Amino acid sequence: GAGVSQSPRYKVAKRGQDVALRCDPISGHVSLFWYQQALGQGPEFLTYFQNEAQLDKSGLPSDRFFAERPEGSVSTLKIQRTQQEDSAVYLCASSLLRGTNEKLFFGSGTQLSVL
Amino acid sequence: AQTVTQSQPEMSVQEAETVTLSCTYDTSENNYYLFWYKQPPSRQMILVIRQEAYKQQNATENRFSVNFQKAAKSFSLKISDSQLGDTAMYFCAFYRNTDKLIFGTGTRLQVFP
């Protein structure tokens, strides 16, 4: 596609619900990143994929967070048993290059609100 | 660990004027990259300008330029001839090869007509 596409754009969940956030990177992009942006803050790294391999998941805040990219293209970020502190914008970014953040293309994010 | 600090939560400027956004960072590395990203209400992060630390010359992109002071670990963004479309959040970010982007907390810029 022309850019990085994320869906849904907005998600409201009740505390304790599971949610799944989708990211469609630019076609052919090898690297894919997930970031979490809390209100009034800068984005914070969650996890990184190179093709289908999850090479870094050091930013995932708890074991309730899980990300996958099974075929090396579309990625899904899943949050189990959502908590209010999970409310944030979740940004996805992709890059043509391997192992570098030099030329990142970002999507418009999913705004998650946990009530 | 690397940190990025943006000490100006909000800035405002009149259309056609010049504004400078500040950023400082902390690192013990010698080779790295610095970025300014723009985030409009659409939430999409858009790369404004990039600076390689090994280059002494300050990067410029049309109306956007940086003042990179490596010894002082300072990386400010100057926007000349400000336009209404420049209204957005601006984030300074640090990157070291094979690592992750580290963002500051952002500066909200409002351009007034």
Could you give the topology of this structure?
The complex is a heterodimer of chains A (115) and B (113).
Chain A: E1 5-7, E2 10-13, E3 19-24, E4 31-37, E5 44-50, E6 53-56, E7 65-68, E8 75-79, E9 88-95, E10 105-106, E11 110-114
Parallel strand pairs in A: 2-11
Antiparallel strand pairs in A: 1-3, 3-8, 4-5, 4-9, 5-6, 7-8, 9-10, 9-11
Chain B: E1 3-5, E2 10-14, E3 19-21, E4 24-26, E5 33-39, E6 46-52, E7 60-61, E8 64-69, E9 74-79, E10 88-95, E11 102-103, E12 107-112
Q: Could you explain how this protein is built, in words?
A:
The complex is a heterodimer of chains A (115) and B (113). Chain A has 115 residues and is mostly beta strands. Chain A has strands at 5-7, 10-13, 19-24, 31-37, 44-50, 53-56, 65-68, 75-79, 88-95, 105-106, 110-114. In chain A, the strands form two sheets. In chain A, strands 2, 4, 5, 6, 9, 10 and 11 form a seven-stranded mixed β-sheet that branches. A four-stranded antiparallel β-sheet of chain A has the order 1-3-8-7, with no helix packed on it. The mean pLDDT of chain A is 93. Chain B has 113 residues and is mainly β. In chain B, β8 (64-69) and β9 form a beta hairpin. Chain B is globular, with a radius of gyration of 13 Å. The mean pLDDT of chain B is 94.
Keywords, separated by commas or semicolons:
heterodimer, A: 115 residues, mainly beta, four-stranded antiparallel beta sheet, 11 strands, B: 113 residues, six-stranded mixed beta sheet
In brief, what are we looking at here?
The complex is a heterodimer of chains A (115) and B (113). With 115 residues, chain A is mainly beta. Chain A contains no helices and eleven strands.
